[in-house]
Amino acid sequence: MNGSQEVLEYGLSTDTFVTRKPRGEALIIGGMGEAKNKWMRVLSKHCAHVLWFRLTELLFPDKFPMVTAMAVTAPLRGPNDPTITSEVEVNRDEGTGDIEIVGIAGPRTWVVRLGDYEARRLWTALDIALYPVGWEGSSAKFPPA
Predict the structure, then answer these.
(1) Which of 6, 39, 61, 94 is 20 to 30 Å from 112 by CA-CA measure?
(2) d(CA 134, CA 116)
(3) Chain-centre distance for alpha carbon 91
(4) Architecture of domain 6-130
(5) Peptide bond between residue 143 and the one before it cis (omega within 30 degrees of 0)
(6) What separation in angstroms does the CA of 86 have from each of 15, 75, 111, 145?
(7) Rounded to a whole number, what is the largest CA-CA distance in the chain?
């Protein structure tokens, strides 16, 4: 991130959601920020897949190889639209256990922190948006109850 990058910090968030844009080429994620401010960000489909993969890896490490082997991915989309998040990083804060999501949308970087429950809610919403048929056809029950 360079010095001219604007950083939007939403803090520990709740009430996360995911919806598809009408043409299906992007997804909208959002929630309620720490200061009770609503936030929404548009993600390329590829970026949403990266977010889903990283959340799967962090939340369900024992199921990660099986689940991601079944997942279909989206092609990489170039950063030609400054309003669409084209890059995302997802990490677990070792001190708090929170999940931190950092997205880059053109000249803006946005940061969201999620507790375990909210991270699982976001994962479920992404799973439904990206893979609408769900996992119920699999012999393995996922995600674990």
Answers:
(1) 61
(2) 21
(3) 11
(4) 2-Layer Sandwich (3.30)
(5) yes
(6) 23, 11, 14, 32
(7) 50
Write the pLDDT tens digit of every residue in 103-115.
888 888 999 999 9
B/e letters for 83-97, b = 16+ CB within 10 Å, e = fewer, are: ebbbebebebeeeee
Amino acid type, 74: A
Distance of CA 24 to the CA centre of its chain: 16
Query: With contact defined as beta carbons under 8 Å apart, do 1 and 106 qualify?
Result: no
At 11, which amino acid appears? Answer: G
| Domain residue extents for the chain | 6-130
Do residues 17 and 29 touch, judged by C-beta distance below 8 A?
yes
Report the range out of 14-18, 21-25, 61-65, 83-87 with the highest average pLDDT: 14-18
State the first-to-last Cα distance of the chain, in angstroms, to the nearest integer.
38
From CA 133, how far away is CA 35, in angstroms rounded?
Answer: 35
Integer Rg of the chain from CA: 15
